[in-house]
């Protein structure tokens, strides 16, 4: 790569393919899903209108530069991130201005939002996300209730949606649309959980505009035509505790669906907790109890937590399905901590249950290594680690002098701190939360036996 290769509006095929190959190698780590063969076929098209819009391509180039920053042997692309960030923003505006290849606009927006979140630029990312999320609603992407392309869901589209997006031509296009919606949904939950922003998508209980889209299947299933609507899972089947999960969703969840469900439960717990603290009501209490049941029911469908706490487990070498289950255990434990924290004044068992969740969270960090922490959803896991650390610190401070510790809470706390030290450099947004944990650790430095935390704190500084 010589000369000013980055300047042409349309990069040379060799440069384009080089950046694309970097992206393809790493895009699963940011939970970006699309049908790659269709995308490459579009790239080779002689028709301008059939090729991917620059709104998507420039965002891909941007992420190629980001991914390269993770590898010491290839740092040259890092200096071009701001260049491709400007180009991606401009291309998104052009796509909207001319209503040109709007699915590429949505996918490019997802990538741009995710990039800004990964770089800790949440306000900018939220601005991009809100526009994409509301546009997705206008396109009806929250009402994709079937995996089958010739379903009435797609053949009987109302006229207002046809103007924005033509009906899908095959099941691969259906899969791409369902995947795009859930990528936007995940961005929505991350912005709410991590930054406290108001969700741009309607809440799950909104009777008028609720999310009805089925959870995604793998792109291979859409390609082979093996997708089915029998037992397709939705947010309703996740949260409605009156439904038998074995009947409602007989299909095994994809790895991505498992991650999505964990984040949905976590965000809902935080939202209900915030509502209860602002205005305690019996209805909110009931909702929290129902969510606790739904959370535990979901956990029962995952590989048992004991599998992830053995000494020979490694996050870096986990299979995709195991990684998803590990993340879901972490986010749902975070949700249960939030529920118990909210109900601590009216439930005598809530405090003990909250501490038990924090200890379980600490055990889940046993396989954390430096090299396996690039997954985008780890930002949510890190948030839950911070919650767990704060719970244990509070418990130690409150009970140190009056309780003969049966369990070594400080050891569990040490595991969480060690994991956070490995994770926080990857996600700038977590640095501030980790600093709060470190400040609390400083208070423990004066307690007998807590010197290990004083050492950890000073090293990280």
Could you please describe the fold and organization of this structure?
The protein has 461 residues and is mostly helical. Helix content is 61%, strand content 0%. It contains 20 helices and no strands. Helix 13 runs antiparallel to helix 14 and helix 16 crosses helix 17. The longest helix has 25 residues. It is globular, with a radius of gyration of 23 Å.
Oligomer: single chain
Write down the secondary-structure element order.
HHHHHHHHHHHHHHHHHHHH
Number of helices: 20
Report the uncertain regions.
448-461
Radius of gyration: 23 Å
Strand content: under 5%
Instruction: Indicate the overall shape.
Output: globular
Fraction of helical residues = 55-70%
- Termini separation comes to 39 Å
Q: What's the main sheet like?
A: none
Global structural class: mainly alpha
Number of strands: 0
Residue-averaged pLDDT, rounded?
Answer: 87
The gist of it:
The protein is mostly helical and 461 residues long.
Main features:
mainly alpha; single chain; 461 residues
Topology overview:
Layout: H1 13-26, H2 36-43, H3 54-68, H4 81-97, H5 102-118, H6 122-138, H7 152-155, H8 159-164, H9 171-195, H10 219-224, H11 235-239, H12 245-248, H13 255-278, H14 282-299, H15 320-342, H16 350-363, H17 378-399, H18 409-423, H19 428-444, H20 451-460
Helix pairs in contact: 1-3, 3-4, 3-5, 4-5, 5-6, 5-9, 6-9, 9-13, 13-14, 13-15, 14-15, 15-16, 15-17, 16-17, 16-18, 17-18, 17-19, 18-19, 18-20, 19-20
């Amino acid at each position: 790569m010589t000369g000013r290769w980055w300047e042409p509006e349309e990069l040379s095929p060799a440069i384009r393919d080089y950046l694309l190959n970097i992206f393809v190698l790493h895009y699963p780590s940011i939970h970006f899903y699309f049908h790659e063969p269709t995308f490459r076929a579009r790239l080779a098209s002689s028709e301008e209108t059939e090729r991917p819009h620059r709104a998507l391509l420039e965002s891909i180039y941007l992420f190629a530069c980001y991914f390269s920053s993770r590898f010491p042997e290839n740092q040259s692309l890092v200096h071009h991130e701001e260049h491709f960030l400007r180009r991606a923003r401009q291309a998104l505006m052009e796509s909207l201005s001319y209503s040109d290849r709007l699915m590429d606009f949505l996918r490019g927006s997802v990538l741009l939002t995710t990039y800004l979140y990964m770089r800790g630029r949440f306000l900018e990312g939220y601005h991009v996300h809100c526009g994409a999320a509301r546009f997705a609603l206008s396109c009806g992407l929250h009402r994709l209730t079937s995996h089958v392309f010739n379903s009435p869901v797609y053949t009987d589209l109302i006229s207002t949606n046809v103007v924005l997006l033509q009906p899908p031509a095959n099941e691969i296009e259906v899969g791409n649309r369902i995947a795009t919606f859930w990528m936007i949904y995940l961005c929505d939950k991350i912005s709410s959980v991590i930054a406290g922003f108001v969700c741009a998508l309607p809440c799950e209980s909104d009777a008028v505009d609720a999310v009805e889209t089925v959870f995604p299947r793998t792109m291979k299933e859409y390609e082979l035509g093996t997708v089915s609507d029998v037992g397709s899972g939705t947010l309703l089947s996740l949260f409605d505790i009156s439904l038998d999960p074995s009947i409602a969703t007989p299909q095994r969840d994809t790895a991505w669906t498992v991650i999505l469900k964990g984040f949905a439960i976590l965000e809902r717990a935080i939202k209900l907790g915030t509502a209860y603290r602002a205005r305690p009501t019996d209805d909110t209490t009931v909702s929290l109890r129902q969510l606790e049941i739904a959370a535990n029911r979901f956990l029962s469908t995952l590989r048992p937590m004991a599998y992830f706490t053995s000494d020979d487990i490694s996050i870096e070498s986990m299979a995709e399905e195991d990684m998803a289950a590990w993340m879901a255990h972490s986010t749902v434990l975070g949700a249960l901590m939030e529920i118990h924290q909210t109900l601590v004044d009216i439930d005598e068992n809530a405090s003990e249950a909250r501490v038990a969740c924090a200890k379980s969270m600490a055990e889940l960090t046993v396989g954390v290594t430096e090299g396996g922490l690039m997954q985008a959803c780890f930002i949510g896991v890190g948030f839950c680690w911070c919650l767990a650390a704060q719970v244990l610190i509070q418990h130690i401070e409150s009970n140190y002098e009056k309780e003969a510790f049966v369990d070594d809470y400080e050891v569990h706390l040490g595991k969480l701190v060690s994991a956070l030290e490995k994770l926080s450099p990857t996600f700038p947004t977590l640095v501030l939360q980790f600093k709060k944990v470190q400040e609390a650790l400083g208070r423990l430095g004066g307690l007998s036996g807590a010197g290990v935390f004083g050492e950890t704190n000073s090293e990280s500084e």
